[in-house]
């Protein structure tokens, strides 16, 4: 009964000061809607950055020999047996639904040369069918075609490398690198396709060749330097990493294998996303600090104008704690209702207006480069339950903190003083 009476008294005051209540509520609704709009677009853009970044590097998750990340030497590679074990682990029912593509690659530094000169290159020996599912390079053809499963001495090269070595479709080039016997080995290749990625470091250095060709050229057989995995989304990274570490536990303990997520493999991209997230938190922290002062003002003004009322209530039997509770309930109710409406409007409005994505190409052009990665300029909002809960919790926390001081003021009212005259 006491709780019911306290709630009724709190609701009555919010109704009595309807104009003030609506003005404060409108600010909170706008703030909540902006939070959802900003964070859903931010999460969508971050997922876009991650997807673009992992497809041009080593995937959401990569399995490597621990020393390869530092040495980049062919001797620090995964054996065919470890490669098969990793691929089998990714085909298990526990994670198969989250796995979109798996590509086993042999990456080596090489010297590419033609009659026009020589340039350093990064040679990726791949399974053409698997790589077409994993990477986006096969969609960036400007001349010729991507590698096919029956290709043998074929090369798919960047436009920058083709220009510097004066190569065209059908041209020959020679790549030289250290083989598994630590001898310099050369391989003659014929250009079947030229791509343009938009990132100079990729266009001027990357060469894709069939994995079988590299196995014969370097004596590596079916060995690879990493097994890369593309998942349905970054949310699946943790479970897949845990699954691989458990399945490959013996090899991990021996130091033959290391399982890394995209943050370890691409720290520059991870840092860029963290900085962008911090900027969002900072801006909206300032916004809600201003809103918090608005809540304090609304609730405190109601306290200052109700000294006599609170004095009467305490004279009739309310304790100071119950008086403060009324004020606290007013602030929390105002915050909760406004926050719920704001979050709902933010979700509905963002989905309705941007369900097909926000095209930023008019501002950034058809290709946007970020942290060495070409990003799709169309940003699709991403709605996450965890993020919505985070926003609601943030709004409620701000409301609770902003209501504490007015509640303390109400609880400390002197009854005798309050009954003397109307304030």
Give your account of this protein's structure.
With 423 residues, the chain is α+β, with helices and mostly antiparallel strands. It has 2 domains: 2-53 and 270-420, no CATH class; 60-264, no CATH class. It has 18 helices and 14 strands. The strands form 3 sheets. The chain has a 6-stranded mixed β-barrel with strand order 2-3-8-5-7-6. Strands 11-14 form a two-stranded antiparallel sheet. A hairpin with a 2-residue loop joins β2 (99-114) and β3. α2 (18-55) packs antiparallel against α17 (385-411). The longest helix has 38 residues, at 18-55. It is elongated. The two termini are 30 Å apart. The relative contact order is 0.17.
Briefly summarize what is shown:
This protein is an alpha+beta fold and 423 residues long. The chain has 2 domains: 2-53 and 270-420, no CATH class; 60-264, no CATH class. The chain contains 18 helices and 14 strands.
Judged by helices, strands and strand pairing, the structural class is: alpha+beta
Mean pLDDT: 85
Biggest sheet: strands, sense, closure? 6 strands, mixed, barrel
Task: Report the count of strand segments.
Answer: 14
Contiguous low-pLDDT stretches (5 residues minimum) are none
Strand order of the largest sheet: 2-3-8-5-7-6
The N- and C-terminal alpha carbons lie at a distance of: 30 Å
Shape field? elongated
Helix content: 55-70%
